[in-house]
């Protein structure tokens, strides 16, 4: 059971001003939203509150403005996209505090939806300044946080408000936290983690946390080369952080102590150039040509990964196994993703995945909808996997 309040704990809210922190930090090109996934994720919470007669007031950031109003980062740009996803009129206020916000809220009808201007136009947002928090809180009776992707930041609109107003988790936040609990909080064993991507240096904390928590850790992508090199294997011209050999060896020692199997590639697909359709061959990792680079793990390695997925009850996935963006170096990632999807659909596996490249890779394999949960929260998902506290989540627990 979640240790935080959800929308199920909200009783009669007709006419109540509900401040809802959402993630609307969507990609925009030529003034048009190019991917509305994040808006779609928060739609259930917004529409549920609206249907219950609340005045739904949306708080969000957009881009990285320099602490002052900037037309390029105005949420006005995405107002029409929010309306399209919700199929509902959405009003807009030119500031998130002060008279513009107060006047817009005063004119709202029950069930109405109002989008306030970018919270980051005020320096007090990222500094979590008490006066700014109070100015935001003046506009609401209840606070609902539905932005897990911003929960790793202790900002005014993600953390500060929960100290002042009654605080609840929105449906997306609730689903995310329940999925993460199944993934690493209190998982059904055996637990397998797949971690890929280019560099070990960006995932040291993650690897150190995972070896203490999972039964097997599959390492793929460019990161695998660093671990192979640390064992004295010549990886040719493959992407490799040779200066992190000691760190890789430490992680392997820690894994052994914790009873965690580290699964590294035994074969790889190598090429002389990094481009689509490049001439390539499959070789043992012990015989990578000196002038070639490993761009994907090979079939024997994939078989070992799939065998672990077959044994597992829980899978946590962050990062691709190879350079999946370029064919034919997407085969390993697609094969493992499809196998995980099949096991999940058969009810044998709880599969939780997240992090930018991971979502792209699962979409590329056509299986994102078949996983138990795919998180669109990049930084917050990684920090959760690293075992770090998330201020925006912790404050909800306290609010209970």
What would your notes on this structure say?
This protein has 400 residues and is of the alpha/beta class. It has two domains: 166 residues, 3-Layer(aba) Sandwich (Rossmann fold); 199 residues, 3-Layer(aba) Sandwich (Rossmann fold), CATH 3.40.50.1260. Helix content is 36%, strand content 17%. It is built from 14 helices and 17 strands. The strands form four sheets. Strands 5-6-4-1-7-8 form a six-stranded parallel beta sheet, sandwiched between helices. Strand 5, helix 3 and strand 6 form a beta-alpha-beta unit. The radius of gyration is 23 Å and the shape is elongated.
Highlighted features:
elongated, 14 helices, 17% strand, Rossmann fold, 6-stranded parallel beta sheet, 2 domains, 400 residues, alpha/beta
Shape: elongated
State the helical fraction. Answer: 25-40%
Task: Summarize the main sheet.
Answer: 6 strands, parallel
- The value of Rg in angstroms is 23 Å
User: Which CATH top level class of the largest domain fits?
Assistant: Alpha Beta
Number of domains: 2
List the helices and strands and how they pair.
Blueprint: E1 17-21, E2 28-29, E3 32-33, H1 37-51, E4 55-59, H2 79-86, E5 91-93, H3 98-106, E6 113-116, H4 123-127, H5 130-137, E7 142-145, E8 167-169, H6 171-185, E9 191-195, H7 204-210, E10 216-219, H8 221-230, H9 245-258, E11 261-263, E12 267-271, E13 280-284, E14 293-297, H10 299-311, E15 314-318, H11 331-345, E16 350-354, H12 356-365, E17 373-375, H13 378-385, H14 391-399
Parallel strand pairs: 1-4, 1-7, 4-6, 5-6, 7-8, 9-10, 9-15, 10-11, 15-16, 16-17
Antiparallel strand pairs: 2-3, 12-13, 12-14
